[in-house]
Amino acid sequence: MIKSDIEAQKILCTHCGLLFDEVDEVCNRCGADLHQRKDNSLVKTFLFAISSLIFLIPANLLPIMVVTSLGNKDPGTIMGGVIYFFHHGAYGIGAVIFIASIAVPAFKLSVLFYLLYIVYWNKTQKAYGAMKYYRIISFIGKWSMLDIFVVALMVAMVQFKNLATINTGEAALAFALAVVMTMIATESFDPRLLWDKREKK
Amino acid sequence: MSQESIKKRKSSILIVWLVPLLALVMTGWMLYKHFDEKGVDIIVKFDSAKGFTEGKTALNYKGIKIGLVKSIDVNPENLDEFFVTITIEKGPAKLVARQGTQFWKVEPKVSITEVSGLDTLLSGSYIEVIPIANTFDDISKGTHQYNFIGIHEKPIDEFSKGRYIKISSQKGDLNIGAPILFKKFLVGEILKKELIDREIIYTALIEDKYKNLVKEDSHFWNLSGIELKASLSGIKVELGNIASLLAGGVMFDSPESSSVVTKNHKVYPLYKTDDDIGLNPNVITLRAEEGYSLQSDMSAIYFNGIHAGVVKEVEYHPNRDMTFVKIQLKDEFYALLNHESYFKIVIPHLSLQEVEGLDAIARGPYIKLNVGERLAEIKSEYILNTSDKEVDGFEIVLKSQKAVSLKKGVGIFYKGFEIGEVTSVKLQNSTNDVIVKASIDKKSSHLINSSSLFYLQSPLEFEASLDHMYIKSAPISSMIHGGISFITPLVKANKGKHFELFEGYSKVMSRRYLLSGGEQFILLLDELGSLSKGDPIYYKNIKAGEVMGYNYDFDKNKISVELYVDEKFSKLVNSSTHFYNVSGVQIEMNRDNISIQTQSLQTIVQGGLAFITLDREAKRVTQSHKFKLYSDVHAADEKDIIFEIKMSRGYDLKKGSALIYKDMKIGRVSSLRFEADEIVAKVSLLRKHENILKSDSLFYLEKFEAGLGGIKNAGAAVFGPSIHVSIGGALDTQKEFVLSLEKPSPFYGKKGLRIVVKGDRKSSLKQSSPVYYRQVQIGSIESYVLGSNAQNVELTLFIEDKYRHLVRENSIFYNATAFGMTIGLTGVKISTETVATMMKGGIGMVIPNEPEGQAQEGKAFKLHLKPKSDWFEFSPEVTR
Question: Helix (H, G, I), strand (E, B), or coil: what is residue B445?
Fold first, then answer.
């Protein structure tokens, strides 16, 4: 039977990794606040995930990139771009954009909500699998701004005056916010919660 | 966990709750903004969706994209129609989605006049929109509308600055974009073309800066690319600019005075050519027998040779079997039109009668318009005549002796202007005269009165003199079939109707002289000389008349010259008048002087006559009086006596050769003529020398002679031979002489004693050798001849009158030439009368101491060869 930190009345500074034998508020080594579990982790995660979900709506509906060629504005949504590339046989690029811009955020949000579901409804038996997912989303979290990078790069590179220019659309902001929200949500989630109930059982 | 930290955590969780809220707000705002900006959907119905792409095809307003085609659907009810849903941006949508907005498709269009929509080559076709008004407020008044019907072509941009005008035309040959030119300068273009009520209405826009050129009375005419005008006067080719060459164009011009148009859409008629400008819109109908191959818009109406209108239409009415020619006249000529207006077709006829249609060969048939008296009433229909209007004039009758080659229609000309024409030519049987009836235009009737002289116009009259020179050619028609001209010398004369028709101008001129009070005289000449028609007649170097003509008189073998002398000079002509020739220059040269005699410069070139009247009071002459022509003024003024010298040869004598007496000119040869193998020289002698014409006067010739014996009469070498005279001593006179071949002795005709001496030989004696008495010359040898039986030489001595008493019956003559020259031991002794006799020879005379009576004329003496010495001792007393 493994004892959890709460049960063992110990506290770990998650910043410097010092383990305190008794519960204290501030780490006397690095000065960080000490919490046995992240404060309001579930609520925070939920709220940020919801926000992310909200942001994803305009991010996908609105054009992320506006291509103006010969005075002709051509706004493109993310999905529009994917379809465009697939139509033109650029399956690789299409796939990358699809994965980075649609699949990954969707996957991350799904995982987050799954985690919340497991924690909230104590589906402890699934905690082990959920943990794997958590690791994945934590890992890919740093790549989730890929789409924004692409847009930023395109905007910077394609500025040929009247011939062709590319500007960011409203969706870019929404998408960036959505990604940020998922990242914060991921950060807000304390994976230890997965195990607390399980330990209790 | 401290209370504080819990509080802190509670507050942080509250903030976190705001995050999704914020996200919702943000997203909501973004979506709202997006879809708000996305605009309004409208549906436009097009006949064709060619070139449209959903989500691609733009809706542009003046080059700005304001919307996008969202979808294209086929009208399920009519498969030829398409509903194009266009999403218009929010802002413009408010203005576009209003009633009256027009949509049309813009495609790339490359035509001659226009290259448009090139941008669509890259961007694809798009839809262009134009709202109903150009101010926000005006548009806002319109009701909202979301369903529209697309139009086919670009509508007129009503809001472009400039002047919109409408041009109505019968033909639609102008294209959209065709230029509107003012003085060939592009000021606008045709924007729209529509067919309304069988009329083409062009809408044109004149650029703003040129809109003041459009005036109320501006004329617009079609500018065809190439204009070719060809007539007898020349060919004119005019090329418009390239655009108008291909697409046609409209040119306009505005009168300066007209006011500037201030409102748009004024309708102007489009004239076919600028010739049509000013055509009165009222169409005049002419009824014609046939069409005369008149061509609408080509055949012209001429009024007095001025382009007055154009044939608009030629119609044939089968029911009435009539051709109707519809014409339009220019305003100014339309105003002239009245009840009496007369239209005549001019067709090129190449017959001799219809030469006036000559211009119609090049021009094509045309209609000639004559306007009658001004009665302001216009007929609804005129008749197109084939012949000229009967001239409303008065009739004159011309009578001619000769058959005149005149025909009906031949013109009557006054100073080259046709003022009438011949109406009939008939031969009157009774008098064998040709009666020509002519009609003279009333306007010109004042030109004719009883003094008028009519004559047949010759095609070409050439007259040259120092006064004037002209070549007068009659009009072409009269060149071919004659014409009648007339002059009216007197302004004030009675009206007349019957005239004589003269053959030519010269006949008329003589009549004119008579009419103006002059008189006609006749001069009889042996030969015409240099006289010619028109030569002047001078009186005291003033022109007094003219030679009018001459005729050869068979009966008299002479030439009768008709002279006309002006009124004021004709009084001077009477029976004592002598006409003489002043032709050319008379240069007289003799040893005294050179005289050049001319009348006037004109006579030098032209010759002429002059006259003098010796006695002003003399009897007047009758018409039939024949004057003689004197060779020169000397002959004519009767100061000279004319006598004749016959000679066997001419001896180079000329008219003007001098008659000389004692080295003085006293007369001249006035003419030379042949008569029975002899030459008769008429010599005119100054009257004061009349006394030379003694019956025994001797006329002889002095010619230049050069020989061994010396040079004689050097003067004659320069001045020609001259006739010399030795006056005889006879009392009676005569006027006919024979030229003596020998030069008479210097003593010929002199008063003195003539005696004969007979000697054995002539020795060195010569004519003029002196006769001495006591070494004083008392006479000379006049002549010598061989004695009748050749036994001696007979010398005729001329003893001067004052010495005649010295010659006595017993006078002794000796040859004084034979001087004694004795050569002795003591030397040479020369004895002679004088040294002169040594050279010339001479005859000496002695009188014995007892002189006998005076010797008689012609007494013969013996000539002694030598004088005897005792002869010199004679010293008789000789008394008269």
Answer: helix
